[in-house]
Amino acid sequence: MIDFINFYLIPGIVLGSIYALGAIGITLTFGILRFANFAHGEMMTLGAYLTLTMMWLTGWHPLVLLPVAMVLLALVAVGVDQVFYRPFRNSPAVVVVIASFGLMLMIRSVTQFSWGAQLQAFVPGIQRPTIFFDVLRLQPKHIIIITSAIVLMGIVHYLLTHTRIGKAMRAMSDSPELARLTGIDTELVIKATWILGAATAAAAGVFLAFDSHVSTMMGFQILLPTFAAAIVGGIGRPYGAMAGGLLIGITEELSSYPWIGDVPLLSPGYKAGVSFAIMVAVLIWRPSGLFRGRVF
Amino acid sequence: MMKTFKQLALASTMLAVAGTAAFAAEIKVGSVAGVTGPIAELVVPIVAGRQLAADQINAAGGLLNGDTLTMVLADSQCDPKAGVDAGTKVVNVEQVVAIVGASCSGATNGMVQSVTIPAGVVAISDSATAPSITDLDDNDLVFRVAASDAYQGSALAQLAWNNGYRTLAMTYANDDYNAGLAGVFEVSFKALGGTITANQMHEPNKASYRSELSTLSGNGAEGLAIFAYYGGSGIAIMRNSLEAGLFEKFLAADGMFDQSVIDQIGADVLRENIMITQAASDYDDPSYLAFANAFEATGHSPQAPYAAHGYDATFLIALAIEKAGSTDRAAISAALREVANPPGVVIRPGEWAKAKAALAAGQDVNYEGAVGQNDFDDNGDVTGLFSVNVVGTDGKWTGDLIR
Question: What is the pTM of this model?
Answer without folding.
Answer: 0.78
